[in-house]
Amino acid sequence: MSESNGVWGQGTEVVLPGGAELASNGDQYASLGSVSCTSAGNCAASGYYTDGSHFYQGMAVTETDGVWGPATEIVLPNNHVGGNPQAEFTSIACWGAGDCSAVGSYTDSGNNAERMTASETDGVWTQATEDDLPTNNDGTGGFLEGLACTGVGDCVATGGYSVTGMAEGMMLTETNGSWAQVTELTSPNNANAGSNPPLRWITPPESTHRHTSTTSDPPTPRSGSAPPTH
Question: pTM of the predicted model, to two decimals?
Answer without folding.
Answer: 0.78
